[in-house]
Amino acid sequence: MARVDVKKTYKLYIGGKFPRSESGRSYEVYAARKGEFLANAAQGSRKDARDAVTAARAAQPAWAGATAYNRGQVLYRVAEVMEARRPQLVQEVRDAEGLTAAAAEAVVSQAIDRWVWYAGWSDKYVQILGGLNPVAGPYFNISASEPTGVVAVLAPQESSLLGLVSVIAPVIVSGNAVVVVTSADRPLPAITLAECLATSDVPGGVVNIITGKASEIAPWLASHRDVNAIDLAGAAGADGVDWGALEEASAENLKRVLRPAGTGADAVEPDWTATPDLSRLTAFLETKTVWHPKGR
Amino acid sequence: MSITQTADPALDATSRARDLLGVSRLTNQALTRWLHGLPGVDQVGCEARAAGLGTRSIKTTSKAWAIDLAISMIDLTTLEGADTRGRVRGLAAKALLPDPSDPSTPRPAALCVYGDMVGIAREALGADSGVKVAAVATAFPSGRASMAVKLADTKDAVRAGADEIDMVIDRGAFLSGDYLTVFNQIAQVKEVCGDARLKVIMETGELVTYDNVRRASWLSMLAGGDFIKTSTGKIQPAATLPVTLIMLEAVRDWRDLTGEQVGVKPAGGIRTSKDAIKFLVTVNEIAGEDWLDNHWFRFGASSLLNDLLLQRQRMTTGAYSGASYIADDSPSTAY
Hints:
The complex is a heterodimer of chains A (296) and B (335).
Chain A: E1 26-30, E2 37-42, H1 46-65, H2 68-84, H3 86-97, H4 101-120, H5 125-129, E3 131-132, E4 139-147, E5 150-154, H6 162-172, E6 177-181, H7 188-198, E7 207-210, H8 214-223, E8 229-231, H9 243-251, E9 256-258, H10 279-282, E10 285-293
Parallel strand pairs in A: 5-6, 5-8, 6-7, 8-9
Antiparallel strand pairs in A: 1-2, 3-4, 4-10
Helix pairs in contact in A: 1-8, 2-4, 3-4, 3-7, 4-6, 8-9
Chain B: H1 9-21, H2 28-36, H3 43-53, H4 60-72, E1 74-77, H5 85-96, E2 110-114, H6 118-125, E3 132-137, H7 147-159, E4 164-168, H8 171-175, H9 179-193, E5 197-201, H10 210-222, E6 227-229, H11 241-258, E7 263-265, H12 273-287, E8 299-301, H13 304-317
Parallel strand pairs in B: 1-2, 1-8, 2-3, 3-4, 4-5, 5-6, 6-7
Helix pairs in contact in B: 1-9, 3-11, 4-12, 4-13, 5-6, 7-9, 10-11, 11-12
């Protein structure tokens, strides 16, 4: 007798759990090249986004309070788990992006390496970005970086894994918590990444992943007063995303906004294969400066 | 009602109980027969009914109305060993102006504190704020003290200016079937309350069965309680929807029987607006609209107010709000 297929249910990742969308909705995901049906993904709603922000807010202080060394180790562990799931990631990236097997292998390798690269920065960026400021008085004047808090990220629409890793890792390495809205058409690698995160000591709530349409969810994240920053990377090429409105809504509580290159409809996704710099990491930091009296 | 008014409310309660029970002498046996004659609670049916009422979807203008009503029904509570004058004053300030960004926000019904903090709360709230002061008394939360101590505790709080007294019943006596003791204690506390309204805490989490919740409700009303309250908040489970449903049935049936209306106060464990709205739906469906008023229904809660304020801000501004936009009700204990 033929065995019945056990199909995977792709759900959201909120607060360390994998719930279905509060809205009960799902949508069909198709492969990029031949358009065959891949899976049903949960279609996240504004209330899922709200729950994710609540979970992120609750998790953020403890994550920021962990030592930099510990955060680095936890992130490195994610790379290890991704390596163990390589075949699955390769297949999903192939399906999602229509790549050849060799190209998909290369993308997954680069995604894992990207994760390791950011993990290594955890106990180093503060020395690079902060330091002792020269002041005209008998004081030490010291600047140090701190995480900005809860960051909303619109993940890239095209690059389903490398792009995704490239926007999540720099946000959380410094102690932020993140709420990610995945690529609408290519959400499956993101949920597999969520499973890697769930099994690798990243505290629940530090990364929350919502599959669905950026045009539906982004306005609520942009106007959410408990979100400290928003990365609009995935607004490039997303259907129906109104840039002006997102930036205007973000201004309401002085959110930090990171935009992709180009403006408005001409926005383009960055080349994720290029060697990164610290700009995505520094975009979500605050600088605390302390004056301390200096003895002789 | 055919009750002769006497100077002594305790006797009043006893004589009324005799009338209601149709006995010439109020004995434990008579009370037991009466309480155990109440219909049993269908546990599965009750839980299914509560779950069903919890699925109602309340949206837009109804939700806005429900949120404001729920805020006005809160007994803003702090009952910690670590309570300070500063904390009570901070909570009073929050009761007077729950949301500084929106003065149209209604005030909660009362501030609920330990007896020694009544004076502080009274002073901080002022005389004409409309926010009442409720005090827990009678050796809250265990109730394990002599009757003299319980009465002194109550008198002390009333003298300090409490508008409402939250007493605990002797669960040990109740569970061992000594209903008359529970009755007498409630009646005596009611007597020393004077004009203060008496809320009777049954601590349903310790009563084990729904039948006991129903019996304790009727016993508390019979003894003269103005409110029946689920819990101290110190025991889990605290205020669940099925337990509150049974109590609402009891006050409804009590009014049909005697013509007197008694309030209900679920306390403990109600933290979200969604939960609060489920309770309001249940109040409306079980007891009726007459109870949708803070004179007859209260929420004993500390963190619920914050969630209601967040929801209210979301509805007035159109954007989700966060804890940074809510006044801190646990200020530093330094002042």
